[in-house]
Design the sequence.
């Protein structure tokens, strides 16, 4: 019984770490993945490098094409999109 009592504080520390650090990070990662999967042509996005542009093409492999100025398009890895500023409305019909 004494051996179990010595592990109780360790178990409590792990539980606190789980709820304060690990669980919120997993939730944030899941939300980011859903945001990246929902990218469409016309969405205005911000990259992790701070560049703002409009999605001009979504490729099948983990890549999109972003227009940062008129006629200037750059290829960007989807996972480096940090924020979607404005979404385009889905086409009806």
Sequence:
């Amino acid at each position: 019984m004494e051996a179990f009592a010595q592990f109780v504080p360790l178990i409590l520390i792990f539980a606190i770490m789980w709820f304060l650090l690990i669980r919120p990070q997993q939730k944030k990662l899941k939300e980011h993945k859903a945001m990246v999967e929902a990218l469409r042509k016309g969405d205005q996005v911000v990259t992790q490098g701070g560049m703002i542009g409009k999605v001009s093409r979504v490729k099948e492999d983990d890549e999109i094409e972003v227009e940062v100025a008129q006629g200037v398009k750059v290829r960007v890895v989807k996972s480096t999109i940090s924020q979607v500023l404005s979404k385009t409305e889905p086409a009806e019909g």
